[in-house]
TrEMBL record:
The lineage of its organism: Eukaryota, Metazoa, Spiralia, Gnathifera, Rotifera. It comes from the Eukaryota. Residues 1-30 are annotated as: Disordered. It comes from Adineta steineri. Residues 1-13 have a biased composition (Basic and acidic residues). This is Uncharacterized protein.
């Protein structure tokens, strides 16, 4: 699939950016009950997976997730203008769709996400 091939090209660049971005978030977090959560370390060293592969473990949790993943990939330009990879752009598209529907007063709009 051409989209997967294109997204592989940008994966190394994205991994490097991800490592830089995580330096600012790896601080101890204090929960509301006063307990301290240690930072989550090592995730920025993990290779980025193609979106479909990264979402595969959630296919049993979210109804028809693979359809929405393919739709998000299809709707993403081959060269996203924001400097992100196709997969990164599609993830934002998926998140934005879910977030929009969560904020929508029409609760029926959430049915596809059950």
């Amino acid at each position: 699939m051409r989209l997967e091939e294109d997204s592989n090209i940008d994966r190394n660049r994205s991994n490097q950016q991800n490592r830089r971005n995580t330096k600012n978030v790896n601080k101890d977090i204090i929960k509301s009950d006063g307990t301290e959560l240690s930072p989550i370390l090592g995730y920025s060293e993990e290779p980025l997976l193609p979106l479909a592969q990264a979402c595969a473990p959630m296919n049993d949790i979210f109804y028809n997730l693979s359809f929405y993943v393919q739709l998000a990939l299809k709707e993403t330009p081959e060269q996203p203008p924001d400097g992100l990879s196709i997969d990164e752009n599609a993830v934002i598209r998926l998140y934005s769709t879910l977030n929009f529907n969560l904020k929508n007063n029409d609760r029926q709009a959430l049915l596809p996400f059950h």
